[in-house]
């Protein structure tokens, strides 16, 4: 493995799906040619506004994922993108993984935060997808606070954990700490994408990042539109598992 993973950040326009898709396309066009998997923020297709997302939620697959599929095909990279999903009477805060061939996976946020629980139903468990950078596990924003989420993905043999978020500026230190901690817990890479700017009175922190399986930040953004990336290598993962053999210890404890 030597492909790159990337975290992309921008300020979505609330309620303007077309404009947000164009922002995703523009950032995708800025990716390095060796980026195999790129992550975009939570609910970035609609903007983070709990009052408007029920009217904008769509089926998966559906028209929004059809547009994302076209974008993924044009840049030849897998994309993980946050959107509101409607499934019957239920709404979910969902991360879809799309390739040029369509939807490869869909993860429903397990732990809605605050008022989200009044809008969204909870997802039922972990979701993984096989990619050129290895086995990737998906989580969303507040899920990052739960070590058991990362541990489940470690037990599933993940090489990378994605996080897409609408993380506030006031909790920036937590964002960096928890991303690093989950990477160390794995051990695996963490690629974490966050909103920037102000939406509906929420100031978002940006600072999208990639943390290595040793828990060190390999690449980090600021508070502007942009992309950060880092390579995923088998040697880094092997070294992390040797120096921090928690997976092997857990396995032996369960035998």
UniProtKB/TrEMBL annotation:
<dbReference type="GO" id="GO:0016746">
    <property type="term" value="F:acyltransferase activity"/>
</dbReference>
<feature type="domain" description="CN hydrolase">
    <location>
        <begin position="3"/>
        <end position="234"/>
    </location>
</feature>
<protein>
    <submittedName>
        <fullName>Nitrilase/cyanide hydratase and apolipoprotein N-acyltransferase</fullName>
    </submittedName>
</protein>
<keyword id="KW-0808">Transferase</keyword>
<dbReference type="Pfam" id="PF00795">
    <property type="entry name" value="CN_hydrolase"/>
</dbReference>
<keyword id="KW-0449">Lipoprotein</keyword>
<dbReference type="InterPro" id="IPR003010">
    <property type="entry name" value="C-N_Hydrolase"/>
</dbReference>
<feature type="region of interest" description="Disordered">
    <location>
        <begin position="200"/>
        <end position="255"/>
    </location>
</feature>
<dbReference type="InterPro" id="IPR036526">
    <property type="entry name" value="C-N_Hydrolase_sf"/>
</dbReference>
<keyword id="KW-0012">Acyltransferase</keyword>
